[in-house]
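Page 37, top half.
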Amino acid sequence: MKYVTSKHLIRILCIAASVLLLSSLTLSGCSQKTDTPSTVIHANTFASLVDGVVYHKGFLPTWNPDGNIYSSTPNTLCTTILNEPGEWSYLCPKPDCLHEDVMGMTCSTYIACPSTYISKRDRILTVVPEGHLLPVIYNFSGNGTLRMTVYDAETGEGFKKTFPYKYLDEAIYCNGRIYMGISDWGFARVIYYDIEEKKTVELDTGDIMTNTGLCGIWNDRVYFIDSSFRINSCALDFTDIREEYDCGVSALYDNDYYLNAAVDDGMLYIMRDETGNELDYEYINYGTVCAVDLNDKDAGETIVAEKVIDFIARGGDLYYNTWDYHESEPLNEFHTPVLFDGGNVYRFDAESKTSETVIENSDMSVRYFYDVKDGVILFCGEDAKMPFPNGLTNPYRYPVCAYRLDTKSLDKIYAVNVTTGGHNKEFYGDESVIADGWVKP
């Protein structure tokens, strides 16, 4: 890990400059009502790809006499160029900064989060304002309290905000607002945060709907699911609420089903997940995913796949993996490779209503997806064939993996060992030195 160097910053600026005109026109169009739908920017878990640069929540360094840098907790915003994996830099440009809040010194990239592990509730948004070369980064994290860390990579300024909610389930940017699906002790609701006015507005559904969850934004309407498993939509200002689709299953409080839904580019994807499908492998659940064309709802549902573990909708299509657990020949006395999805990823084409395999028989399982953009799939992966020097049996988890669809190549951009305590550990420096009983792969 290193500080932002002028060489690295120049390269990032060059990448951003190549798309400045397009980004400026797109986002300026999102600041006012137009005849065309607004640009929607999705939040991602842990990492976000913007114009060839990956922005993520990185690791806080601790001082060490031998000059090496060891990780502690993942509480610092960092960046890398996608084509140069491993060349990470802190977004904070101050060479003497500790990147934390200590002894009266505050770093604007430090994320004050009590959690020492990465979860799907930790998300990051990158938005390029009109006239900017570099994005403004909104990082959300929470472990009982939802916190937003805002950092402008161009000006070096930032601030932090705490919301009176516990967890973030989803975040989407549109028209100068960040729409969020949040939860609080099992109760969910949809809100938006107005960036310019710095205020929060909550969706009011009256007495009919108790719980709501954010599904997506399409055609200048916010789509959400209610506690009776109905898909609804409303205007961007939370007015004009109307029902769009009845999923036809029992309510959330019956605890018989959990339903997950996503709306993207006119397509609705519904995952019906029976709680009886909870598996022994680290509490992974699977369910059946169906597709509904919102432009032709009367046509009904199309089954995408069964035993789907995780999915992400982009460009109307759906990327997903399915349960396909199997063990390979043991690598040594301590480690037997395990793939819970067969190392495969599939894409459902919304137009043809058929699926194709886009990642086949790899040694990397997909824990969950982050983003699909410009022919690159970003996901959290687990390497099935990484041996363990100390006899541990936990899988190696790579929080940022990038798979390029054109070259069919996979990069493990960032490697983290998952210990039995649930903490992320990483060692920087001499690879021959053992840290916490293991060496950097």
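Page 37, bottom half:
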Amino acid sequence: MPLPNILDIARSDLYTNRDELEQKYAITQVEHLIRLRDMVTWCIANPDMKDRQFVEEIKQRYGISMVTAYADLKIIKAILPNLAEATRDYHRWRYNEMILETYQMAKKRKDTKTMEKAATSYAKYNRIDVEDEQSVPYHLIVVQPFFPTTDPRVVGINPVPNIDERIRRLTKELADSHPDTLNIEYEEADLQFEQIFDESNPEADEKE
């Protein structure tokens, strides 16, 4: 029976307990998965790192070859499609961590001025002073009673007196003064598109 693909294993069991992994997969796959897990964590902590830095890091940690290192990089990029670009959620989380860390350091030094700035920045960024948005009561929204009409007064336009009669009179006058003008009904185009665009038709190429 062939072993499951390591990418499929990583997608489903990347953070599964090692004891459970050893019951489901071969020990070589478990070790590989643990290595991928470790490097995924490293990538999340270092979102701006380049491929070359990843390869050097994993080679140093696990003593693997260059080929194996790049193979692991390919797997991790498949697991984390946005590996090369840190997501906004990550930056939000990282910003809060930095502010809280700054606050704690200032607190140890009893630097109340920096503590106040950090607390203010934290509150402003997380919009603590803004009331939580209330959900819209959709069940209380009344549907507007729209009705179709030909009366232009509903949009603030005065109607033209005897508009239908004027249309008929103008139509007759224009027809009398321009007898060559005809009302032509729509007709389907009498074109054989299959032959015109048939690349196998040599006659089409000659016409071009």
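Margin note: Confidence is low (pLDDT under 50) at residues 82-86.
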